């Protein structure tokens, strides 16, 4: 599976990362992996609880840190989940594609200097989602993959 990533810098100071990835799993399975705490916690880099409804919230608990709250800003099952986390807006959409589905993620980035790091983090998460959907354990890591961060810095510098 390949993740396609592009960065939109048309809004000054607020780059938006756009990810597109096809999963060979039904939309219902991918939707469940995005909207249930137990499933999210399998591939997201922290423990997640979710009140899956517009006006609800995700509670994200990273090891050794205080929980963070991310309000759900859009919820349209089984198509769209959006939330606001740490000053950034994230929007996940799913569309059926034959026997699988296409996931699209957009993420505004508060700090433009952090764009490559954010891209590398989501790339890793989307790989983890693929593993979880396939019944495999998600890769475990203790921090950003510096090689992947360097890849995205080079990719975004090239335009």
From TrEMBL:
Residues 25-133 form the Activator of Hsp90 ATPase homologue 1/2-like C-terminal domain. It comes from the Bacteria. Belongs to the AHA1 family. This is SRPBCC family protein. It comes from Streptomonospora nanhaiensis.
